[in-house]
Amino acid sequence: MNSALDKLYNELLEQADNEPEEELTEAERAKRFLAEKQITIEKLKEISLKKLEEDARRKEAARLRELERKRQAAIEKRIEQEKKEKELIRHIEENTMRFWKRDITGKRKETGILYFGESKRRGEAWVPHGHGEYRAHGEIIYEGQFFDGAMHGEGRLLMDNGNIWAGQFWKDMVQGMGTIISEEDNNKRKAIYWRDRRVCFLDELMPGCRLQLLSDEFVRDADGAALIVGPTHREGRYRLRLDNGTEKLVRLDNERFRLLRHKPRVITLDTILGSTTYGLLYNYDDDQANPQTSAHRENYYYPDLWAGREKAKREKQAELDLEMKRSQILARRQVERDEQAAANQAAEVARGLEEERLRQEEVERMDAQAGEKGKEALEAAQEAAAAKKQKQKDLSRSPPRDRGSS
Question: 247 has which bridge partners?
Fold first, then answer.
């Protein structure tokens, strides 16, 4: 039981014990009992209300303390985040190299191309080395591995035609196996490149296709001509049968070769692993005449400004500006039409208000005239009544006439 209730109960018992006994009837005792019960209930309500108020104040104080704690924690978190952001910005600035060249006057001029990443010193200059990225006017051009200033290893390159090459590089050239990601539909297709030239797509290396290995190791054996027997479990590695009858496992992503233009020769089916169907083979000579080179033409001392891409961007921006001007002209004309319509509507409203004002003035004038006429009629009636009254008064004062004389 609550201590406050116990205390009140004991006080009531003591008070009851100390009171002298009186001779009361049953009705008086019941009435006194009900009165004492009501007093006790009121006191208990008062104690309960005080306790509830104390609990509410305690909860409100706890809530305010919790809000203050959260506010302080949020302030500390924001301060810590700002410190981390400043530290990250400082780290980026320290590890960002800006490319520049000198103009005709010899003044140093930045080209807008940045390198961010790992680097190393080479004499008095620095070169990219490790993992980093090239940015041209805010756009990521290359992201991947560097070695001694050149793109070397795995990386991701944005080409001139907008496609993306994600694969291998060798001494600043696209070389090896990778994936070409189309800019238009984001379609992905694996291919093999050799020194910035596409050799073939990976899906063209089907069993039964003929190719020519161009390295000295294979040229000595039947001029390097070979037949694809089938792929292996390792991507880029194929089992080939040379024209001299020997079979070898060759990594075509690391080997220089070309696909032959004629169709596969007739062979027995037991030498083929996989499908015997074939499609149109890749034309190596046409690709050599029209090579698909990568977009990386600048070096890390005098980078190119990508004149072709910049020109295309300027033309596109000019079209956007023209379309924007056309839209602005149409919008301005629409605004003028809306303003004219609003002015006409305001004039109509003003004209209506003026007509209403004139009508009100006419009504007031007619009311005034009617009031004047009524006032004049009232005054005439009052004068007539006064004259009539005066006449009656005069008649009443005049002496009566003698009947005999009449």
Answer: 241
Specify the pLDDT at position 166.
92
Q: Are the beta carbons of 119 and 129 closer than 8 angstroms?
A: yes
CATH class for the region spanning 206-272: mainly beta
Integer Cα distance of 224 and 220 in angstroms? 7
What is the rounded distance in angstroms from the CA atom of residue 42 to the CA atom of residue 246? Answer: 111
Q: How far apart are CA 132 and CA 117, in angstroms?
A: 4
Tokens of 154: 């795995």
User: 251 with 265: CB under 8 angstroms?
Assistant: no
Higher pLDDT, 300 or 379: 379
173-197 mean pLDDT: 87
CB 210 within 8 A of CB 225: yes
Checking if the pLDDT of 305 tops 50, the result is no
203: DSSP letter: G
Distances from the Cα of 220 to the Cαs of 213, 260, 284, 369, in angstroms? 10, 18, 21, 131
State both tokens at 29: 């005792």
Provide the edge-to-edge strand list for the sheet that holds 210-213. Answer: 247-251, 237-242, 225-231, 210-213, 257-259
Q: What is the pTM of this model?
A: 0.45
CA–CA gap between residue 98 and residue 114 (Å, rounded): 5
The Cα–Cα gap between 212 and 44 comes to 105
Element (H, E) at 88: helix 26-94
Q: Which of the four pLDDT bands, split at 50, 70 and 90, describes residue 198?
A: confident
Give the domain ranges of the chain. 206-272
Give the pLDDT confidence of 112-138 residue by residue, as tens digits.
778 888 888 777 677 888 888 888 877
- Whole-Å CA distances, 392 to 262, 383, 387, 398, 399: 149, 14, 9, 10, 14
- Taking the C-alpha atoms of residue 69 and residue 63, their distance in angstroms, rounded to an integer, is 10
Using the structure block, give the residue that is written with the tokens 């919790």. Answer: 66
